[in-house]
DNA sequence: CATGAATGAGCTTTCATTCAT
DNA sequence: TATGAATGAAAGCTCATTCAT
């Protein structure tokens, strides 16, 4: 794939991200995506097989990017508490970005129940998230602050608390409450881990 | 509304439940719903204002029914442990029903980010779920097994763990794993509450 | 046809008149007509063959009634001037009634271009109108005020001036202008006849 | 708008003209229009906002074209009699064209009673027609053949006679009678003007 | 007689996709 | 490469008509 092609695809995926966030997975049209990307109607179909292909690449892109960011944030810290805080900071980054991401991510989760391709992409994302959790938990253990029975279970629990709190926050539709849900989520994870 | 009308509406909503579960919120057509209900194309439109109206009633119906079942299950028990177990039993009732419900529920959550009506229905559902959690927690407190700092926070955490585990299970696409996720979820809640 | 049937049909036609005036010939539904008549949806179909049959009877009814009224008004007078004035008074009776009638009548004229049945009903109406014109003109001749070359031509001209002015007035959408158009129409007819 | 787009729109409007004339304003479908234009179903919606938009452009187009033709015909003549005759020739051009135009025009008049947009287009058409009448009348005055009290009133009367005779002719459904109605109309206008 | 539930044809409109330019 | 005109499938919705009650 040429450099130019690469760029075009990125441009379209970025536009698709904004478009899906604004209009919703099923409601968004290729025309919308083209408009957001400031290209003509035919371009998305030229650089991707079809609409679903654009959206699958979007899901891959955003889950991978989120993972890289969170991983980097956590790896930058040394103590358990700092790592956990850094993780939560990276997850609950700010109301605007979180709303954008979780609107789209929820759309994809809903689709994934009936779409193998999306389910696979999400499975990889889950694995990546679990690996971050494990990093934090292992550090907590080495500091003697906690004792995990099962990294996998704890990863699932942490993922549940993060997704669950984020969805509940999203449903309030209130950006002001972002800080509160973030703090509650952190506290819940701490409570769970250091029991 | 006459008794017969009532029945017809129930029938259509039931058909819509199966149809949405099979095809997805946006993909399902009124024709699908009519087919599943074994009635003609015009009937859903006769008994409801439009497609969205059918689906909003579906969301109301399923969230209310789930709540009533879970509440009844919990109220039937006396000890904290039994109540919690009964709750989890009612939530993780069996792979088939859980898949059906959560496929549809996830669809609605995804829609709710852009639809006030759905968001309101979901807010009521959340409140109802929180009230069940509170019932269980208060019993745990009276038994001296735990000490809640904040019923609201604990309700959110329990909801997060339940939704989170259920979504993760759904994403495996594996009915066999239902039992494992159920047990993990129960353990996570216990860990969280009795810390 | 029984007395009751007769009444029901009148009731439906009256409702249809109002309904068509409000909604338009093609836009009006049998449900509308039933609503206006305060009967159930099935009634119009019970008393008439189908929708077109209702509307054809409506056209017959309103053209016949208008003719009878105008004829009576003219026959009540003795001089040419009084007869003409009475005719115009009966035609331009008031803004509300004229709007109602001409909205519906225009709808039927438009339909009549493609509907033999309506065209026939309108042909009878024209004949009736011409007979009124003839009555007036003959009186004018016997008073020595005018000299018709051809009753038929003059009838057509009078009909043209009445329909034309009425349509132009209707297009203004202004009830205030009713009086002006009425006077202009009268003057135009006088000018035409007494040339 | 590109030249090609312009042409396509003209093509669709022309097809719509024939289609409406054949089937009627409300009865005609976008499919009909597409068929008459020998394009696919989606094309009319591609070039116009919706069905009403197509039809409004049609009304604008045909009223403007008729006006331009009539104006040109009148301006080509020098004497009052010639101008009037040219006008009537341009109005009563031939049975086929007149039937086509007046079928459609009557449809629009009927719609206009409930549609502001159409009413405005027709109001402009009326103004244009009045301006032609004025041209003729002023010439008649300068030749000393007649004396108008009020250009506006005379314009309305001429319009009434033209529309009225045309409608009456249309209702006969008889192309043979076209010549007779044309002559009668001309005579009626002459009688009216030179009284 | 009267009701209104039910049917299904038929409409407008949207939009992914194709393809000539 | 890029465009956007064109296609036509498929959707939601309306409503005349039928008919069991």
From TrEMBL, chains A, B, C, D:
Keywords of the record, alphabetical order, are: DNA-binding, Repressor, Transcription, Transcription regulation
User: Is Membrane one of the keywords?
Assistant: no
Show the Pfam families listed in the entry.
TetR_C_6, TetR_N
The record places the DNA-binding region at 29-48
- Report domain HTH tetR-type positions: 6-66
Keyword Lipid metabolism annotated: no
The name this protein carries in UniProt is: Transcriptional regulator
Q: Which organism is it from?
A: Guptibacillus hwajinpoensis
User: What lineage is this protein's organism placed in?
Assistant: Bacteria, Bacillati, Bacillota, Bacilli, Bacillales
């Amino acid at each position: 794939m040429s450099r130019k092609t690469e760029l075009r695809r990125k441009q379209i995926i970025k536009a698709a991200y904004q478009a899906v966030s604004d209009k919703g997975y099923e409601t968004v049209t290729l025309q919308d995506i083209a408009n957001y990307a400031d290209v003509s109607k035919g371009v998305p179909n030229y650089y991707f097989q079809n609409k679903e292909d654009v959206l699958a690449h979007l899901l891959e892109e955003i889950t991978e990017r989120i993972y890289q960011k969170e991983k980097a944030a956590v790896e930058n810290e040394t103590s358990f508490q700092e790592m956990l805080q850094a993780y939560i900071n990276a997850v609950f980054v700010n109301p605007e970005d979180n709303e954008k991401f979780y609107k789209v991510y929820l759309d994809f989760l809903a689709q994934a129940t009936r779409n193998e391709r999306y389910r696979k992409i999400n499975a990889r994302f889950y694995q990546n998230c679990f690996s971050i959790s494990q990093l934090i938990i292992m550090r907590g253990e080495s500091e003697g602050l906690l004792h995990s029975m099962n990294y996998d279970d704890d990863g699932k629990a942490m993922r549940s608390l993060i997704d669950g709190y984020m969805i509940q926050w999203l449903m309030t539709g209130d950006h002001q409450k972002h800080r509160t849900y973030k703090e509650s989520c952190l506290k819940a994870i701490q409570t769970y881990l250091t029991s």
